[in-house]
Fold this protein.
Amino acid sequence: MSPAASPSVATPADLTITPRNIAFGRGAANPRWWLGGDPVATTFYNALSVTFPQGEGFFIESVRHFKDEVPPELKEQIAAFIKQEALHTREHVAFNRQVTDHGYDISRMEAGTKARLDLSRARHPVAQLAVTIALEHFTAIIAHAILADPRHLKGAPDEVRRLWLWHALEEVEHKAVAYDTYLHVTRNLSAFRRWSIRVRVMLLVTWNFIKYRKTDMADFYQQDGIRNAGTWWRTLKFLFARPGLVPAILKPYLSFYRPGFHPWDHDDRDLLRRAESELAATSPAPAQ
């Protein structure tokens, strides 16, 4: 293996991946456009949330397939990863139920997500794992942006903001589990082959991520009767200017293509500590 293909950084030895069994906003009545009354910002997060229950189920499957092939420490991290993702699934099922309570039909979005994941499930287990590490990179860098800049959730109801804060915290915390699993199970491949697989899969995942987030947002806009040029212009401003998620994630996104990349090249444990403190400062609702 060439030095360029070997990560120079590893998952911190003192990192603890902690499943936090918290329920959010049960029985709450949130506004239809819950993020500061902004239909664009609300739609962006709603469209993400629709994909989470099925997507996180796929992540669990793809990593669990290799749990008996990895070293004991990584096996423990996989177990914690699975628990976290299962809890995320539960909470976003509940959140999505609140979305549908406002009259939105998300069945087309869910069907599209299932069809794309079923295509991935038909591939080799290593290819499925590569899809997972690409999508986990997206979730980790978006999570980092949410934790780093309060503007992203400004105006959200307290329990909704806490839900996304909690989810972001745990996505950053376990951001390397699938990647470390990939490194282990592909250890006998050539350096170029390992790099090539993950890069080619990331390019495809990126295309689909952009395409289908736009499709799902268009579906929400259509249901709200605001699918027009003005709304799309507001969407561009939301994504690129205020609060500007795309500029915030662009550099860390591109880092994935670097030979020798590792998710912990950027040590953001300070954000984890801040988010943990914020969650602890409020009284969590009991899990249902």
The first helix runs from residue 39 to 64. Residues 93 and 134 are 23 Å apart (CA to CA).
